[in-house]
Amino acid sequence: MKFAIIAAGEGSRLAQEGISLPKPLVRLQGEPMIDRLIRIFHQCGAEEVCIIVNQLRPETEAHVRQLMQEGTAGVPLRLVVKSTPSSMHSFHELSPLLAGDDFCLTTVDTIFREEEFRQYIREFQQTDCDGMMAVTDYIDDEKPLYVGVDTSMHITGFYDQRQPDSRYISGGIYCLRPVALQTLERCISEGQSRMRNFQRALVQDGLHLLARPLSKILDVDHAEDIQKAEAFLSGVQSL
């Protein structure tokens, strides 16, 4: 199984709030966010980790290339350097490296409890579904994507507004089979540009998707989110 990291954003909001480092290199508990994901993916048995970084932030490219040169990641790294207009386009740039394999994709600033994530990966590997999406009922997102599920946790839809069947929101972590890349190609050919539209297209194409709840999933979009993530990972209960 392969793992993939989208680390191609500009991090403009963090920069405006005084954070000079590119987002992937922001440290949580002393560890750059991109290194944290690589370490966790290695522990989950990753065959390789495919990463896309923004060519406008050469510090991130240099950091990943150093990891590749030193071989300290413990897992083969494959790197794409390109500026893209959206996360879905970044995913599309990575897709040739993922073709033919099951894979897990997330953005570099997605923060979760490690043991919960490992269990999520194990459950995906034990199912025959076309995809398993990490979801959470903890909502601290500016524009959450609500996830509709039935009583068996089969995903029935993705919504911009809460619906009667949407207790959860998308956590931005996607475990998918190779068939999902066909839907991605369709979305790109139709001019789609958001990951939430890709997820809707998976449902439209009839793929069997399951939702896997995690207790909390955080994104680091603002400077204050760094402190929230630190507290979360430290086990502080006030979040």
Q: What is the CATH C-level name of the largest domain?
A: Alpha Beta
Strand tally, please? 13
* CATH architecture group name of the largest domain: Alpha-Beta Complex
How much helical structure, as a percent, in the residues?
Answer: 25-40%
The proportion of residues in beta strands is 15-25%
CATH fold name of the largest domain: Spore Coat Polysaccharide Biosynthesis Protein SpsA, Chain A
The count of helical stretches stands at: 8
Helix and strand run: EHEEHEHEHEEHEEEEHHEEH
What can be said about the biggest beta sheet?
Answer: 9 strands, mixed
Question: How would you describe what is shown here?
Answer:
With 239 residues, the protein is an alpha/beta fold. The chain folds into 2 domains: 1-109, Spore Coat Polysaccharide Biosynthesis Protein SpsA, Chain A (Alpha-Beta Complex); 112-219, Spore Coat Polysaccharide Biosynthesis Protein SpsA, Chain A (Alpha-Beta Complex). Helices cover 36% and strands 24% of the residues. It contains 8 helices and 13 strands. The protein has helices at residues 12-16, 33-43, 58-70, 87-98, 114-126, 180-189, 195-204, 223-234, and strands at residues 2-7, 27-28, 31-32, 49-53, 77-81, 103-107, 110-111, 131-136, 146-149, 155-159, 168-176, 209-213, 218-219. Strands 1, 4, 5, 6, 8, 9, 10, 11 and 12 form a 9-stranded mixed β-sheet that branches. A two-stranded antiparallel sheet has the order 2-3. The protein has a two-stranded antiparallel ribbon with strand order 7-13. α4 packs across α6 and α6 crosses α7. It is globular and about 45 Å long. The model has no long low-confidence stretch (mean pLDDT 94).
